[in-house]
Amino acid sequence: MYRNLTCPNCEKNILSSDININKGLAKCSDCHVVFDLEQEMDKNSPAQKEEIFVIPKGIEMLKVFGELNIEMKWRHSVSFFMMFFTIFWNIMVLPFALIAIFTGELGMLLGISLHLLVGIGLILWALAALFNTTYIVVDEHFIRIEHRPFKLFYKEYELEVLQVQQLYVKKYQNGSTNGNPNYAFAVMIQMKNKEEFQLVKGLAKPAQALYIEQEIEKFIGIEDKPMIGEF
Question: Residue 18: left (phi > 0), alpha (psi -120 to 50), or beta?
């Protein structure tokens, strides 16, 4: 569940807009009390998370020669609705594109160019979803993340271990189906300068994200602490 921050004076929930992460302060919009964010989070820290002993499906882990290697295959988190939509969209657009090309109707091709670009983007996403693997490599100096074979626009990082303050799992809405929200999970890293990085996202099961957080924290020797917005 999410960890909500409450006011130490009136116990009302604190809105995210009233939290200043960089200064480490929060202000209650009800009673206007300003308080230290870190102290209040530590005071209301819940019991330690239950350790996950079984590696979740879709994740492979190996510790060797002072390195922690985590591999995550994207196909275990594929959205079947998005796959269906990708196929449907391109079946609808492709015939018009072929007609325009073979008849020389460049105006028609230009008219559907935006639809073609969307179709190409969806195909690239589908290929990545089916064949990509995310590689997280952790040693005593760095946390590195790479995506192969399709890098596309997915961010890759190399973060200094000594500058890492905390890892945590975040739940977010990842589209909707028939008006119902679809949720996914991301593993976040907060650095000591309060800058945040999204280590990996799009995980379908919370156990996958929690396991990655757990193993990296154990490997680099970070004590797990509650974070605002943490799942």
Answer: alpha
Q: How far apart are CA 95 and CA 22, in angstroms?
A: 53
Question: What are residue 159's DSSP bridge partners?
Answer: 143
Could you give the CA distance from residue 109 to residue 147 in angstroms, rounded to a whole number? 33
Q: Which amino acid is at 39?
A: Q
pLDDT (tens digit, 9 = 90+) per residue, 13-68?
A: 777 778 877 777 788 888 888 877 666 665 555 545 678 888 888 899 999 888 99
Residue type at 126 in one-letter notation:
A
| pLDDT single digits (tens) 164-191 | 999 999 988 877 777 778 888 999 999 9
d(CA 65, CA 139): 9
The pTM score is 0.69
Q: Is the peptide bond before 206 cis (omega within 30 degrees of 0)?
A: no
Contacts of 171 (CB under 8 A, 6+ apart): 2, 183, 184, 185, 206, 231
